[in-house]
C-alpha cells in the first residue's frame, strides 16, 4: 500500500540516539552487575523516529535537525540514510555531542529516561529557513520544548510559512514543566492542523484533570484537530465540529512503549499524504504504534506498509 503521491514529508526537530536495555527490575547498588536479555542502539526522537517509520511505509521523507561530530551522530546519519530518509538537512554541529537517551525498560514496557539534550540545542533558525516547501505535502515539527534554538518565534515562522505554502502542518511537543514551555508551544498552535500529544503531556501542559478540559484548552488555543494518543486505551480525536471521537488500540504483547507515539504520528501522516479521512489516518496511526510496542526500541515491529495491512486485517482491537 505505497503512498499515492510523490510529494514528500519533512520532519524537523528532535534527533536522538537511544540506548535501551531490557528488562531492568532494579539498578544494582554500587558497582554491582545486572544481566539483561537485550541491549540495543536505535534512531529515536520525534523527528528522527517518525522519519524512519515514514520511509519504511513508503513515504518520501526528508529530515531537518542537528547531530554532533561523534560516533552517535555518525550512527544516526548513516542509519537514517540507509532507511531511505533524505538527511541533507541533518547538519553536524561539532560544538555539542549528539543527543542521547538511556532507557532501562521495565517488564511492563514502561521506562524512565536519562537524557542529554546535546545537539538538539544546536538547531538554528536558519536550518528551518532553508526548507523548500515547493514539493512538500506535510511538515511535522517534533520535540517542541526541547529545542531551545528554535522554540518560540522560529518555530512559529516555520509553521506559518508552511501553511502559506499550502502544506499540512503536524506537531508533537514534550513539556518539561518549565515556564518557557508555554512560550514555546502556545504561539505555534494557531498554525497547527494536527497536534499529537500523549494523554499525559496533553493534561499536564493544559493544567487539566480530564480529557474534556484538555480538549477545550487546545481547541481554544487554535489547534484545528487535536489527536491525543492514550497508549493502551487508543486515541481521542477532536475538532470544533466534533469532540472526543475514540478509537481503540490493538491488543498486542507489549515489549517496550518507546517510539509508539512517533510511530502513531508516522501512520497518521501516511494517511494524510494519501488523502484519507481523519478517522482513517488515526486507524493507520494506531496500527503503527501498536506494532512498535511489540519490540525493543523506536524501530521495532514496523518494517513496511504490509505489516500495517496485516495487523489491521488480523489484529484484535482493545487494550494491550
Automatic annotation (TrEMBL):
Example GO molecular function: kinase activity
Tell me a GO cellular component.
cytosol
The lineage's top-level taxon is Bacteria
InterPro entries reported for this sequence:
PfkB_dom (IPR011611), Ribokinase-like (IPR029056)
Transmembrane region(s): none
Designated name of the protein? Sugar or nucleoside kinase, ribokinase family
Name all Carbohydrate kinase PfkB domain ranges: 21-299
- Which Pfam families does the UniProt entry name for this protein? PfkB
Q: Which SUPFAM superfamilies match?
A: Ribokinase-like
The answer on whether this UniProt entry bears the keyword ATP-binding reads no
* UniProt KW keywords: Kinase, Transferase
Its lineage opens with: Bacteria, Bacillati, Actinomycetota, Actinomycetes, Micrococcales
Amino acid at each position: 500500500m505505497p503512498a499515492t503521491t510523490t510529494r514528500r514529508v519533512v520532519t524537523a526537530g528532535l534527533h536522538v540516539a537511544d540506548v535501551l536495555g531490557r528488562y531492568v527490575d532494579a539498578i544494582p547498588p554500587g558497582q554491582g552487575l545486572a544481566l539483561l536479555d537485550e541491549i540495543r542502539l536505535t534512531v529515536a526522537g520525534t523527528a528522527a523516529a517518525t522519519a524512519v517509520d515514514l520511509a519504511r511505509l513508503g513515504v518520501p521523507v526528508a529530515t531537518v535537525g542537528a547531530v554532533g561530530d561523534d560516533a552517535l551522530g555518525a550512527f544516526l546519519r548513516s542509519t537514517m540514510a540507509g532507511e531511505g530518509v533524505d538527511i541533507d538537512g541533518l547538519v553536524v554541529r561539532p560544538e555539542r555531542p549528539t543527543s542521547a537517551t538511556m532507557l532501562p525498560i521495565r517488564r511492563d514496557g514502561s521506562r524512565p529516561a536519562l537524557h542529554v539534550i546535546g545537539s538538539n540545542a544546536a538547531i538554528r533558525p536558519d536550518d528551518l529557513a532553508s526548507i523548500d516547501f515547493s514539493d512538500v505535502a506535510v511538515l511535522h515539527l517534533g520535540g517542541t520544548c526541547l529545542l531551545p534554538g528554535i522554540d518560540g518565534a522560529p518555530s512559529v515562522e516555520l509553521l506559518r510559512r508552511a501553511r502559506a505554502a499550502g502544506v499540512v502542518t503536524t506537531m508533537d511537543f514534550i513539556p518539561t514543566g518549565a515556564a518557557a514551555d508555554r512560550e514555546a508551544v502556545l504561539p505555534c498552535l494557531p498554525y497547527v492542523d494536527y497536534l499529537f500529544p500523549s494523554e499525559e503531556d496533553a493534561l499536564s501542559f493544559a493544567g487539566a484533570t480530564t480529557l474534556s478540559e484538555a480538549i477545550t484548552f487546545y481547541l481554544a488555543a487554535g489547534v484545528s484537530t487535536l489527536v491525543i494518543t492514550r497508549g493502551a486505551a487508543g486515541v481521542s480525536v477532536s475538532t470544533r465540529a466534533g469532540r472526543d471521537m475514540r478509537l481503540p488500540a490493538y491488543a498486542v504483547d507489549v515489549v517496550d512503549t518507546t517510539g509508539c507515539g512517533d510511530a502513531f504520528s508516522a501512520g497518521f501522516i501516511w494517511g494524510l499524504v494519501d488523502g484519507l479521512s481523519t478517522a482513517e489516518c488515526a486507524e493507520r496511526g494506531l496500527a503503527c504504534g501498536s506494532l512498535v510496542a511489540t519490540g525493543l526500541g523506536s524501530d521495532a515491529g514496523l518494517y513496511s506498509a504490509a505489516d500495517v495491512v496485516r495487523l489491521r486485517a488480523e489484529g484484535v482491537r482493545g487494550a494491550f
